Amino acid sequence: MAKSNKFSQWLSNSINESKDKKYRHRLLKENLDQRSKALEILKSYFQKAHEDVRRHLYKVAGLSLDPLDSPPAYDPAKGYPECLHIRTLKGYFGEVFAGLVAENFSPFEYNWKVPVFLFRFHKLAFEQLEMWRQTGEKPGIIPGSSGDDCLAFQRDEKGRVVRSLVCEAKCTPDHQSKMISDAHEKVSDHNPIPVNRMQLIEILLEYDDPESSQWVESLRQLWLDKSITDYERCDLVSYVCGHSPVKGGRKTWIPADKPYEKYTGGRRLEAIEAHLCDVEGLVREVYGKKDEVNG
Fold first, then answer.
1. Domain for residue 292, yes or no?
2. Is 17 helix (H, G, I), strand (E, B) or coil?
3. Which DSSP letter does residue 138 get?
4. What secondary structure letter does DSSP report for 83?
5. Is 202 exposed, middle or buried (0-12, 13-18, 19+ CB in 10 A)?
6. What is the domain extent for residue 88?
7. Is residue 269 a part of any domain in this protein?
8. Domain count of the chain?
9. I need a labelling partner for 78 at 20 to 30 A (CA). Which of 15, 19, 266, 281 fits?
10. What is the full DSSP assignment across 235-284?
11. What tens digit of pLDDT does each residue of 66-124 get?
């Protein structure tokens, strides 16, 4: 995904760092005057994040995505993802937003790259869409996918992964403290190498471009080379909410000077807190969702 300065114009950015520099809190606040200018590139970023699913579904169906070919009579990706329940789309929004922050706001002052998103492994979503196509029954509320919400990496000049950024994402139109607690608990797991690296490789093997091939080699080396000694896992919690604190002079929901109490990972952690206006409206606009107005 390409970087864009429109994101930094849309979201004001303030950072607090702990004395030992192992914890950073980043508050992103929306400049509403810039939303319309950022919306086009925002939609493009989200479309690219989900493009692997569309490509995968067409491949399974034996169909071509080549724009020069005649359009198929049946679209295996029809309704994806916009016809899924709004709660599912909020979850997706949070996961893609975490990747957007990783690539555009340089957590820990490193340049991170998200090689691909893992949406194709959310099997329940595809089962719901297939039921909708066959019976007309609208997709309902389903659990999110297991595993990592988003993974970003930093590579050296030789293409070797030197850092992983494991992201746990939450998104709510209001404020839910339990989401913050759950996110910090989940990202505290003790594995140094992301558990979903094999799924990333599985996806990237289906692409024949040089960049994807390079990522396959980098991730395989991270997986199999036990001699790597200077590798580091970093953690990121991304919390998108629609309400800001209003009492007691408080400015953030997540502590700005020290890790949230439920975080026990012991690694470098950056907490991203994004205060956006009309979160559900933004999710609907980004995904082109028109039904379930009160969903």
1. no
2. strand
3. P
4. T
5. middle
6. 5-64+76-287
7. yes
8. 1
9. 281
10. EEEEEEES----STT---SS-SSS--TT----S-EEEEEEE-SSHHHHHH
11. 665 766 777 899 999 999 999 999 999 999 999 999 999 999 999 999 999 999 999 99
Q: Is the peptide bond before 255 cis (omega within 30 degrees of 0)?
A: no
Tell me how far CA of residue 265 lies from CA of 19, 128, 171, 236, in angstroms: 18, 35, 22, 11
Whether this prediction's pTM lies above 0.90 is answered by yes
> For residue 96, which of 51, 141, 129 has the smallest C-alpha distance?
51
What are φ and ψ of residue 245, in 5° steps? -60, 145
- Structural domain contains residue 238: yes
pLDDT digits (tens, 9 = 90+) for 144-157: 988 999 999 999 99
C-alpha 117/C-alpha 106 separation (Å) is 18
CA 168 to chain CA centroid, Å, is: 8
Would you give the DSSP letter of residue 113?
B
**Other Cβ atoms closer than 10 A to 156:** 11
* For residue 195, pLDDT beyond 80: yes
Beta bridge partners of 264: none
Count the helix, strand and coil residues of the chain and give each as a percent rounded to the nearest 5: 40, 15, 45
What confidence tier does 1 reach under pLDDT thresholds 50, 70, 90?
A: low
**For residue 295, is it within any domain?**
no
Q: Spell out the SS3 assignment of 21-75.
A: CCEEEEEEEECHHHHHHHHHHHHHHHHHHHHHHHHHHHHHCCCCCCCCCCCCCCC
